[in-house]
DNA sequence: TAATAAAATTGTAATCATTACAATTTTGTA
DNA sequence: TACAAAATTGTAATGATTACAATTTTATTA
């Protein structure tokens, strides 16, 4: 999927984020590479277009996106945090063979014992072997 | 809940783990402190009974327990991994106020899009505010 | 029981993702 | 153009976990 600069700018503005060059490139990378990348992945994906880019700026940008609610974090059994531009509820499947992280729809979860608790976020993470690795 | 030394020894033997002093004390701590402790928590909980204990031994022990399948890991939005002696499928609720991690039963999850995938492990993590922190 | 091998434990150093922070550069505005 | 605010950078610090070699404990054999 391709995004125009205007679309990217509007996306950021709508979410109360000033559109700097780095922010636009990171956003573009996240929108066009739905692989749940780590900070390092993002850095490597953007460094060619912004040769002066620092890792710190990637972290700054991601943390800003997080605060503004346009990315969510994935805590899987890696040591790196992964990021997802899709903040709607959905499940994640991590393949133990190839390392890929897949999205899948979650229709409903039946739970009990949380009466009186305020639930703000749900994570559903599966692990196993993906269809390409059988 | 209290566990006798014999129960602890049998628990380890049944899972193909040689019962050393450290392993017994770590197991006892995990069984009697259902707080999803970090490695540091375990270290602090056992150091009084084994003053020569090293952090490395705690990690060694936990990693052995993990390999043998008697503990599971919890990847929440902390920077530390937490451990759970209960390896049966259940959900976890992390309170953003007090930091406590609660267990809750999960009856069913309806998902799609994973035809042909082998699912080996499921994690269900919720975040929010617990009933004691309202 | 003493000798030996195997297993467990320890302490220290290394790793590595992320953050802290101060300096520099860029941007927006008067 | 001049100034202030915001963004970006580079380096150092942090902290959880692992690597590894040395030491201690336990089990096995003669
Ligand atoms: Mn996703
Ligand atoms: Mn639990
Ligand atoms: Zn795979
Ligand atoms: Zn609470």
Enumerate the distinct ligands: manganese (II) ion, zinc ion
The CATH architecture category of the largest domain in chain A equals Orthogonal Bundle
CATH topology term of the largest domain in chain A: Arc Repressor Mutant, subunit A
Assembly of the depicted chains: homodimer
Total DSSP helices of chain A: 4
Report low-confidence residues of chain A grouped into runs of 5 or more.
none
Which protein chains make the most extensive interface, counting residues with beta carbons within 8 Å of the other chain's beta carbons? A-B, 38 and 38 residues
Count the domains of chain A. Answer: 2
Shape of chain A: globular
H/E series of chain A: HHHHEEEEEE
Q: State the total count of DSSP E strands of chain A.
A: 6
List the helices and strands and how they pair.
2 copies of one chain form a homodimer.
Chain A: H1 5-14, H2 21-32, H3 39-46, H4 55-68, E1 72-74, E2 82-84, E3 91-95, E4 101-104, E5 106-111, E6 118-129
Parallel strand pairs in A: 3-6
Antiparallel strand pairs in A: 1-2, 3-4
Helix pairs in contact in A: 1-2, 2-3, 3-4
Bound molecules: manganese (II) ion (2 copies) and zinc ion (ZN) (2 copies).
The structure holds a DNA duplex (30 and 30 nucleotides).
Explain how this protein is built.
2 copies of one chain form a homodimer. The first copy, chain A, contains 4 helices and 6 strands, in the order H-H-H-H-E-E-E-E-E-E. Chain A has 134 residues and is of the alpha+beta class. Chain A has 2 domains: 5-83, Winged helix-like DNA-binding domain superfamily/Winged helix DNA-binding domain (Arc Repressor Mutant, subunit A, Orthogonal Bundle), CATH 1.10.10; 88-128, no CATH class. In chain A, the strands form 2 sheets. In chain A, strands 4-3-6 form a 3-stranded mixed beta sheet, with no helix packed on it. In chain A, strands 1-2 form a two-stranded antiparallel sheet. In chain A, helix 3 (39-46) crosses helix 4. The longest helix of chain A is centred in the middle third of the chain and has 14 residues, at 55-68. The model of chain A has no long low-confidence stretch (mean pLDDT 97). Chain A binds chain B through residues 73, 75-77, 91, 93, 96, 102-131, 134, and chain B through 73, 75-77, 91, 93, 96, 102-131, 134. Strand 6 (118-129) of chain A pairs antiparallel with strand 6 of chain B. One manganese (II) ion (MN) binds at residues 36, 84, 86, 90, 92, 103 of chain B. One manganese (II) ion is lined by residues 36, 84, 86, 90, 92, 103 of chain B. Chain A binds a DNA duplex (30 and 30 nucleotides) through helix 4.
